[in-house]
Design goal:
Six copies of one chain form a homohexamer.
Chain A: E1 3-9, H1 14-32, E2 40-46, E3 51-53, E4 56-57
Parallel strand pairs in A: 1-2
Antiparallel strand pairs in A: 3-4
Chain lengths: 61, 61, 61, 61, 61, 61
């Protein structure tokens, strides 16, 4: 605890995930008074054909 | 907001997802008083070997 | 299967949820070739102080 | 109902998922007073590059 | 890791959750080769008016 | 898109959530090349009796 789950479109690089993991863990520790070891971050890569906004798939926009 | 998340077995076509996105967004706008732009729909395709009911994997049934 | 999860701001009425359940189940059956009995819908009411967009809590906007 | 969702690192075998589905369904039925048929279990395989703890991706550890 | 999330209707007792946590953690350790300390279990209590099957809210059935 | 979901034990203040929303949105924009407006953050407050680690409910530890 805490668990942070980040849904983004597929295509972010490992370098971006590595940096997000570092910075968001730091924010959780500083602001929410937890420890780095207790902070879990999970990324979910969503393909554009599995995401819609305004009633239209992102892969059709 | 709102966010609608639809878990289905893998195998639905893009045409089916496109139609679901259209119809469900319409339902959210008409019934829950939101806008199409504020309505996000995410599909998750679950393989049959990752789903169990009655204690048995769907891929074993 | 399928499972549909709908996150909305708290405040929608039972009548709205009842109608959403009916219409979205119907859409799943017609478009995704499932049965009503196999279609589960879960609503999650999110309070405005637990939701942010643009870096600002909805309760502050 | 109930729905049990299990996030594990990718790499568990079908035999392990089959056994987990059996044993956890049994636990739900015995302890939570439900039926096997009403108990749904979903596995999600998380690749190590999509998981961080202590601010570091599991694929970097 | 792993993370197990259990959605049930509201109304299960603390004793039931305590026993589920114990037995399911044991199953994860024995079958999925993890440790008790690495196994997180989260319960979500769903009120009957937030759950529908067959197009009908459980609170209406 | 993206959607960030943060599960923490109940008890964090509005001030802490406000600051987390601000800082994490900033991280998403800087690192994952999105916009503040496209970044949604949802907090979920988990009571200690709904969370277990090591097979024991946090409310029992």
């Amino acid at each position: 605890m805490p668990i942070v789950r980040i849904e983004m479109w597929a295509g972010r690089t490992q370098a971006q995930k590595r940096e997000l993991a570092r910075v968001i863990t730091e924010a959780m520790v500083n602001i929410a008074q937890t420890t780095p070891e207790a902070t879990i971050i999970i990324f979910e890569d969503i393909p554009k054909e599995n995401w819609a906004q305004g009633g239209v798939l992102a892969s059709d926009q």
